[in-house]
Amino acid sequence: MPGESLPGLVIRLAHRLETTPGDVASRTGLHQGPSPSKATPNFNRLLMLEATQLSIVAAALRLPEPTLDALTFRPLADRYPPVTEALTRPGQAGQLRPRGFFPPWILATHTRYCPSCLAGDGSEIQRRHGGPWKILWRLPVVFACVEHKVFLRHTCPGCSRPAQDSRSSDGTRLIAAAGTAGLHPAQCRNRDSERSAAPTCGYRLDTPQDDGDSPAPSSNLIALQQRILGLLGPSSDNDHAASAFKDLHTVATIVIASWPGAASMTPEPRLAEALDHEIDQQSRCDPGSRTAAQQRRLWTTPPLTALATAALMDISSRLLALPQAAFGQAVDALLRNAPPPSALGWGRTWTMIRTSEVPAFTKEVRASLPPPFVPTARVGKPTWQRARQPITAVRDRGYLPEHVPQWLPDDWFTVMVTHSGGTALARSAVFRRFAAVQLVQIATGMQMDGAAEFLGIPEEWHLSDVHKRKLHPLHRYQHRPEDLVPAFEGLGQHISNLRPPVDYRARRRRFADWAMDPAAWGVIQAGLPRPHRNRWTIPEHEVEGLLQECASEFIWSQLTGSEMSLAPTSRDLGPSASEPDQASPKGLIRHRLLWPRGFPYYLELRSALTNHAHTLATSNDG
To answer: Which helix or strand (DSSP H or E) is residue 232 part of?
Structure first.
């Protein structure tokens, strides 16, 4: 049915076949497990079905693949940033794959619903099996049904829990009580406990509720909801929609963090009261009861109820509709009464504003924001936390973060040594990464994790177990901050004087999936002497393949200012890929490309590859 979600289709099909949703999931290929009756596919399936599984499930259901794909969030990846974030790993733009991570602006554990939509349209098939569980009900920005002109509900009147609550101890499931048969698709599937034998609630969510707690939305709110639905629709411009949602979500965070500063922006008191009630309940929670993730999402998480969400969307959209100067003044006033930027509850909000990821915050607006919102290292924080802060004052340094490569060139280290006052600076891979991250931090005020993500450094390199990390904060190095400050100040001045500056971020995006054309490799190889004799125990054609692969990685690293191990053609991409393994043939080739002294063939090959990279860069930047 139009707008239906994947779990909605599964439970309707199970009802029609008089079996369990788990059995349907197992038979169609949505889940592979030992017990079909207890199959519980993960919520990742709603984010997207990867190509192989999409083909298998579509064939089993006898649906066109695009029709099945439309039952997931995947079609929204280009226009709804939280879906993009859930499907894209840092540094791997364009490569969609569920991360097992659900941003707060996606309802992963429950859904909102409209009772009238669930009751169906009166047709025979919907009279028997109910109307659709719509996929857009899983997005907090959808707070009203424009067809029936009602606010969506989020809890079951029978058990008072979130509708179709799919949380479990082993992760977020696609369908609640997937092993239970006999329930109508509109019935609540919530259990009293995780035991498979525990009874389900069974309340009919398609039952009309005529109470005074949920008045009808005003015409202004219906119009706002229609505009939001238009942005989510397939006919919308992807870039425009993505920009609009970034603006909306960022301003919503500021409204929540500074509440009740913007309460007067909505002309409907009932909306302000609903939002005030939810924010007040949140503030009364014991901070010690929140997990670290919940603390980081304190102000970036939307309200639970549709009425409070409508208030937040109404206020945020009215702020964004102000002229640019008035918008800047309004945001300035809100932030002056908001918690400091160092508070965890901001999440990545401030990083996004400072790095121009949020279109509404132009350079002029950012410049007008209050001074306390320029994050700097603060005395009194724990050592590990101070070590992740910018090493020196954050200010305009004459260069943009885009001008910093992820892998610092050797001549940049020479500049640092010149200004270090005699301090010996390590040129190791881990210190290079730290230095690049710091250059971004001191120019933008980003936190360490945000700067690493900006540079395309994989999360595993700085968020995994300490002994596995490839990027460390300052306290892991044998340098005192006061010794490094002059070096970074001098290097920052050097970067600001480079003309023309190189936009490394644009190059990383432009060449995200680049690999050297075999014909280009043939031309380069034709101008070189024969390589060294094959001393490895692998066939000659494999050596030739490794040479071409390493050559492609080297050119990509020169183009994007990144490490070779992050190249899209690298076979060992991952947390352990930062250093070439010199015990392997490929590791030796990479090592000699990076340090070719004493190897004439590699000296000439490196020179040819560098020239080719320069030609590509000139063509791309010109």
So the answer is: helix 219-232
- Contact between 450 and 443 (Cβ < 8 Å): no
pLDDT at residue number 149 = 94
Q: Are residues 220 and 270 in the same domain?
A: no
Q: Rounded CA gap, 223 and 332, in Å?
A: 28
Q: What is the tens place of the pLDDT at every residue in 180-211? A: 888 999 999 988 765 656 788 999 999 887 65
Does the pLDDT value for residue 475 go beyond 60? no
Tell me if 129 sits within 8 A of 185, measured CB to CB.
yes
pLDDT tens digits, 135-149: 999 999 999 999 999
The secondary structure of residue 216, as a DSSP letter, is P
Cα separations (Å) of 321 from 119, 133, 247, 248, 314?
37, 33, 11, 11, 11
The structure tokens listed for 519 are 């014909």
530/545 Cα distance (integer angstroms): 15
CA–CA gap between residue 44 and residue 213 (Å, rounded): 34
Residues 130, 12 share a domain: yes
d(Cα 406, Cα 515) in Å, to the nearest integer?
Answer: 19
Whether this prediction's pTM lies above 0.70 is answered by: no
User: What is the mean pLDDT of the segment spanning 21-28?
Assistant: 88
Residues 150 and 241 in one domain: no
Quick one: pLDDT at residue 379?
Answer: 37
| Cβ-based neighbours of 610, under 8 Å, separated by 6 or more | 558
Give yes or no: residues 497 and 525 share one domain: no
> Contact at 8 Å (CB) between 53 and 43?
no
